[in-house]
Amino acid sequence: MNNLINKMRNIFYEDIAYPIYQCKYGPAFGNSIIKILKRIEEYQWLAHDEMLAMQKEKLRSLIKHAYLTVPYYHEVMKKKGLSPEDIKSANDLINFPVLTKQIIRENRRRLISANLQKGKYIETATGGSTGEPLNFIRDWNTLIWTEASNLRGRLWAGVRIGDREIDFRFIGTPSLLGTFRTKIINKNSLDALAKENELIRYMDKIRSFKPRSIVAYASNLYRIAVVCNKHQINGIEFPSIFSTGELLYDYQRAFIENQFNGKVFDYYGCNEVGSIAHECEHHHKHISEERFIIEVSDSRGNPANNSFGVMTITDLDNYAMPFIRYQNGDLAETSNDPCQCGRALKIIKSIQGRIQEFLRTSDGNYVPAIFFPCYFKDIKGIDQYQIIQPDLNDIILKIVKNSFFSVQELENVKHFIKQTIGENINITVEEHSHIPLTNSGKNRLIVSHLPMDI
Length: 454
What we know:
The chain is an alpha/beta fold and 454 residues long. It folds into 2 domains: 46-353, 3-Layer(aba) Sandwich (Rossmann fold); 358-448, GMP Synthetase, Chain A, domain 3. Helix content is 34%, strand content 25%. The strands form 4 sheets. It has an 11-stranded mixed sheet. A 4-stranded mixed sheet has the order 18-17-16-19, with no helix packed on it. Helix 10 links the parallel strand 6 and strand 7. It is globular, with a radius of gyration of 23 Å. One of its GO terms (molecular function) is ligase activity. It comes from candidate division WS5 bacterium. Keywords: Ligase.
């Protein structure tokens, strides 16, 4: 009987629910989310040489398309004396110029393919958490591959297609059509910018919904866990917890898992290209190499000689506005070490954060954002903080105090910052009642206005 129920359940979600959901990208013909999912479920077990061979074919096709139909790429390849035949594998990309946010802003129209099919793409933008939003185009094909990759990441965490999920990344009020599309695949979207009293009210909805999983930005997951702990809201459990969008710190992971009696699975991506790497059951972030070529480079596109460098991304599926050797500003380290799970997919070993989230020391070194939350978590009198570095000589420390605040504790914080950045740094403290999240619902702890040369 159980086998029959599971079979009927799978038929509903695979043949009815997801094709309806996919209609937001256009009619569900050709490549479908479920069809791609089944393919990449097989691809993940390929030997790495076989995966690289697949990458080569997709890369050659993309480069040829970019050269023939995208004015910007045609021009830069001509200037460098490159033809499509010169880029045969990932190793040849070293000869290809990098793509930056500034280049995209200055050449947006010229980066769009002349073969762009009307109605088969979406125009979207980044959340602008690091400054000015970036506008770009993604075609249906790359969106469908993104959805399939996300579903595979869910399967790695023990979440089946159609299991109930709370999505805490939504901003504002969803449309009726949007609500229908998410509910038909058993998802419930809640406002990422909800205040504490709203979060408390959400808990009754979550308890009655009985979700298998939750997905949210890392800081928001931690905030929700803290609110539940503070108000002794018990009985809210998520066996699988998906963190994304921000750096997830070890103390946050431990607290979230303990509060919600589940396991956190962190995944990495960016709006420009979608999800890039998901944690497997052994908590290694595997790159979706069917979709991406990931390099770790310096700011000029040369291989990074140190342990980490700028994430340089080639999206093999977006033909509407190709992202070839795109540097999104994140600093990371990759590894080819084998994982116990048996998948040969390359691993992102660590992510150090955005270039704008590194502070410069007086002697020219860099301090990553990850250095500060581990200190501030033990500061009892400060609920929120943000460190801004406008120049080499100054730091602005924004704080939100609570009833445990003391002048001595603030002096200790300032001393810690001086020890970390430089004794001669000028620290200006600004007291606020609230430090708002970014427009996309993220929490920026560190903001640097200084250039960084990796």
